[in-house]
Amino acid sequence: MELFETRAPANAPACYAAPSIFSRDSQVCRVCPTFEQCEEASLKTLQELRKTIDVTDLLARHAQARKKTVEKAAPEAEPVNNLKFLPSIKPPMTPVVRKARIEPATFTIEDDIQQVIDNLNKNPATLVRRLAKAGVVGLVRQELAAGRNPLPEDKWTWVSIACQKLVEGGYSKQSLVMAYMTKMGWKETTANSHFVIVTPAFRALGLIVESEGKFVVNPEITNNNQ
């Protein structure tokens, strides 16, 4: 889990600046509109991570992928010194065992929200955790029930777009994917992947229900808000 705050471009996908996901030789990454920015941001994240854990293997993987793609693009060019793209690696004073998961100690997630997170797939769970960390789960429920978009688009981008569609009467998969493609400039595959993040997350939090072929604000939270 990458816990360091990184300011992402407005059209960046949810995996932006995640060094465990970004790969220069990935076909999915290479067609992303924020490919070059994401590479730089991922390396910055690794710089921060190496203060806490041993990320030598990730740094080596990124260096190898960059070398392969650079040589493939310009086979006759002189070899590129890939080390200049990477931060200097200093061995830790005390060996650190790399862990698969590091929980932040700066906030506490309520038991009912943690149960929701535990029952979701990785990406929807990450979104719910982000909302809980920001302390806005209750606000989202209250504002949607009142017919208002609770999340500013300049900060929450694609999540705010889904909220706005709910305020306007709900969304189908097709309408939300189209909104993402139009407003975020995403390809259809990226837009689809974010639909399957936000929709399960909102359903698990009890914010939405499916009705007549589209997802709408859950009537129960509307009734409770009256």
Give a quick set of tags describing it:
226 residues, mainly alpha, Arc Repressor Mutant, subunit A, two-stranded antiparallel sheet, 10 helices, 2 strands, globular
What does this molecule look like?
The protein has 226 residues and is mostly helical. The chain folds into 2 domains: 1-104, no CATH class; 111-224, Arc Repressor Mutant, subunit A (Orthogonal Bundle), CATH 1.10.10. The protein has helices spanning 27-30, 35-49, 56-73, 111-118, 122-134, 137-145, 153-167, 173-184, 188-204, 219-224; strands spanning 208-211, 214-217. A two-stranded antiparallel sheet has the order 1-2. Helix 4 runs antiparallel to helix 5 (122-134) and helix 7 (153-167) packs antiparallel against helix 8. The longest helix is centred in the N-terminal third of the chain and has 18 residues, at 56-73. The protein is globular, with a radius of gyration of 20 Å.
